[in-house]
User: Which sequence fits this backbone?
């Protein structure tokens, strides 16, 4: 106890003598929390209520299920503006967040996906390519885009003509001057077109087909782009290079691509502990502290209908998959460690499915703190 008192008095003295230094330390801690946020960008293309899912198309019903799963998980869906503000360090985000993007500008975005997104009040971004807008048939119109802009939609640039990688290589062989002009035509000029058409800044770009011409990397910032998205899966942090932001393309015929995208890497960090929601009641509570190094984990699933008990899987940091118990009457899951917790932060993840469901729902993840020092002091007192 003497050591604890001495540390407290030292901190008090430091705060009194060096208030500016203390404030700067708090500022650095805040920035550290920003850095530990993980954002997953989801990428969609076309939607259909009647056609089967494919690599570029998802059924409206499956898309609705996925959006409901995000809603139920408590993971925050952020707008493109929020994303950019967070990247600059001007906005704090939870430990996990989702950015919804849609490429090309198919009319089904307006006719199918828009209602689903509006229902959940989810912001979303459409990456348009100039030649397809107002192209008739299955293309979005300016009027449709303007309506969606009033309900959480933002736009980014997806080039002028959505060229194939071979088009870039072909132009490159002509001459350096011709190639430079082609890059401006495909990347710079459509940015100005969209800004004029929709009367708002356009500072984000999605590479057509995910192809990143090496010569553009030094030009993107010069041309006013702040964030450029690929089709390579991964999580985004504040340190991720702006010209190579990963994005998970969700395939309509492979639902597991959605589940993999939302399976955030679990890391130990204070940001996670302070920003978490649980879909079901848990003990110890999310973000709480306990001095019990054998604290039992409990999850109340009584509000969940059609639960398949055989699908339940519980992961606990440092222990992996643990042999949990399931009470069918209370419909609750529990587990108590036989070896004491040795880390200050315990992270738990619950996986489950409903009866007849093919794939697991998004895992529920939460953490709690173990007060190791208090635990040791209590053991000494005993």
Assistant:
């Amino acid at each position: 106890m003497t050591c604890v008192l001495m540390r407290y008095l030292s901190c008090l003295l430091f705060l009194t003598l060096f208030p500016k230094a203390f404030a700067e330390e708090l500022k650095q801690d805040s920035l550290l929390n920003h850095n530990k946020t993980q954002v997953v960008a989801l990428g969609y293309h076309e939607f259909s209520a009647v056609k089967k899912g494919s690599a570029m198309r998802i059924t409206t019903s499956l898309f609705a299920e996925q959006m409901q799963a995000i809603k139920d998980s408590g993971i925050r869906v952020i707008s493109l503006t929020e994303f950019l503000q967070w990247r600059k360090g001007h906005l704090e985000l939870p430990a996990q967040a989702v950015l919804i993007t849609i490429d090309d500008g198919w009319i089904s975005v307006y006719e199918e996906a828009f209602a689903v997104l509006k229902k959940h009040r989810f912001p979303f971004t459409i990456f348009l390519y100039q030649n397809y807008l107002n192209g008739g048939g299955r293309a979005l119109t300016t009027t449709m885009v303007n309506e969606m802009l009033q309900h959480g939609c933002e736009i980014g640039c997806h080039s002028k003509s959505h060229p194939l990688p071979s088009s870039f290589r072909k132009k490159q062989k002509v001459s350096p001057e011709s190639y430079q002009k082609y890059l401006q035509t495909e990347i710079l000029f459509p940015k100005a077109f969209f800004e004029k058409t929709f009367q708002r800044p356009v500072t984000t770009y999605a590479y057509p087909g995910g192809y990143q011409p090496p010569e553009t990397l030094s030009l993107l910032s010069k041309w006013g782009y702040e964030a450029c998205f690929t089709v390579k899966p991964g999580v985004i942090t504040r340190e991720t290079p702006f010209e190579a932001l990963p994005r998970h393309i969700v395939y309509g015929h492979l639902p597991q691509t959605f589940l993999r995208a939302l399976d955030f890497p679990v890391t130990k960090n204070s940001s996670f502990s302070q920003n978490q929601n649980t879909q079901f009641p848990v003990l110890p509570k999310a973000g709480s502290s306990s001095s019990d190094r054998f604290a039992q984990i409990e999850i109340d699933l009584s509000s969940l209908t059609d639960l398949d008990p055989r699908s339940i899987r519980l992961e606990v940091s440092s222990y992996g998959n643990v042999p949990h118990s399931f009470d069918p009457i209370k419909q609750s899951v529990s587990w108590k460690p036989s070896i004491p917790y040795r880390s200050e932060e315990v992270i738990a993840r619950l996986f489950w499915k409903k009866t007849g469901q093919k794939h697991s729902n998004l895992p529920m993840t939460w953490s709690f703190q173990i007060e190791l020092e208090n635990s040791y002091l209590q053991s000494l007192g005993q």
